[in-house]
Amino acid sequence: MTLPYTLISPVKNQALPLVFDSPHSGDVFPADFVSKVSNQDLKTGWDAFVGELWQGVVDQNAYLLLANISRMYVDLNRAPNDIDPVLLDKAWDYCQPTKYSDRGMGLIRRMVLPDVPIYDTTLSQAQIQTRLDHYYYPYHNALMQTLDALHQTHGGVWHIDCHSMKSRGNRMNIDSGLLRPDIILGDNDGTSASAEFVQVIEDAFIERGYKVVRNTPYKGGYLVTHYAEVANNRHSMQIEVNRNLYMNELSFTPNANFTSFQADLNWVSAKIAEYVSSQV
Q1: Which Pfam families does the annotation name (predicted)?
Q2: What φ, ψ does residue 169 adopt, rounded to 5°?
Q3: Quick one: which of 65, 63, 52 has its CA closest to 18?
């Protein structure tokens, strides 16, 4: 069985209370996944190369948690009960679908692209529970335990949820048809991280020449809202990077700017680490 995640840790006695995670960087489908959707379409939900792009954060004494399983199998950035009842073979009281399920993008994806359903049969409660038990909860437990341990040691912890986005929204997105900026920072409209922390990140990207927007259309998903508690010095925010900056969106291959963009992210992560170091 494929391990649900990879956790890359810095040198222990130098570790900062800084954690980056990438819940959509996985591209593995367990053997029980059955779909007639093409691999090309399934890849559209993959945050391709995000783990590689941010791997330099470990050199800045931060932790990096990477999903190994595709979000098309189970979405780690959703609530565990955000389940679309349409997918099920019978009713399940546990389900509490949200706006994400309404768009076909809940815990278990119903749609891979507009008008392209993933499944042509229903799923059982047991099938979904297996995905939760084997992949979803282990990832969240690893993140939670890392954040909790760092908070206990340092009195504060800073968490960045890393994503990539299509260069243009499609009909499943609230910005359908619109071209997207280089970088979107999501702090749930200023409620999931300190203003100072987010400003440090925004300034770093702007200094490297990138167009930065906050909270439109991405405010931060379940991971950001669930693990943030600013009043208790627990800060979570999301960084979305435009795929056009570093990859060919049709072939899912790095483009000529990949190495340069990776270097810029290393520079940004150094600025973030410098800020966190000043807080502890």
Answers
A1: FGase
A2: -70, 150
A3: 63
Q: Which residues contact 100 (CB under 8 A, 6 or more apart)?
A: 75, 78, 82, 106, 221
Neighbours of 153 (CB within 10 A): 12
Contact between residue 92 and residue 83 where contact means Cβ atoms under 8 Å apart: yes
Phi, psi of 63 (to 5 degrees): -95, 150
DSSP state letter for 135: I
Residue at token pair 């297996």: 130
Please give the tally of structural domains in the chain.
1
Say how far apart CA 186 and CA 180 lie, in whole Å.
14
Digits of tens for pLDDT over the chain (280 positions)?
789 999 999 987 899 999 999 999 999 999 999 999 999 999 999 999 999 999 999 999 999 999 999 999 999 999 999 999 999 999 999 999 999 999 999 999 999 999 899 999 999 999 999 999 999 999 999 999 999 999 999 999 999 999 999 988 777 677 777 788 999 999 999 999 999 999 999 999 999 999 999 999 999 999 999 999 999 999 999 999 999 999 999 999 999 999 999 999 999 999 999 999 999 8
How many other CB atoms are there within 10 angstroms of residue 240's CB atom? Answer: 22
Measured CA distances, 247 to 38, 64, 75 (Å): 20, 21, 23
Domain assignment of residue 61, given as a range: 5-279
- DSSP-derived 3-state class of residue 237: strand
The token pair at 237 is 């925010």
DSSP string for residues in 156-181: -EEEEEEEEE-SBB-TTSTTBT-B--
Q: At 238, which CATH number?
A: 3.40.630.40
Q: How is residue 91 written in tokens?
A: 């009713």
